[in-house]
Amino acid sequence: MDIVLCTCGRLAPVKGFDLAIEAARILRENNISFKWYFVGDGPEREKLERMIVENTLTNNIEITGMLDNPYPY
What we know:
Elements: E1 3-8, H1 17-29, E2 34-39, H2 45-54, E3 61-65
Parallel strand pairs: 1-2, 2-3
């Protein structure tokens, strides 16, 4: 069974989503099965999407954009 993580916030440098991507890379390297949802939008979205691709995390991390209700995740 996959671990499901959800982080909500504005995708801005001060929020540290880049650190979350680094943590996700470490999880994957340790063969931990997970899915991580980033709920939100902001100026860092394109950079974060590139980092996700560069670190081969497209199957593990999904940026959902803004949602009225993140609780289903």
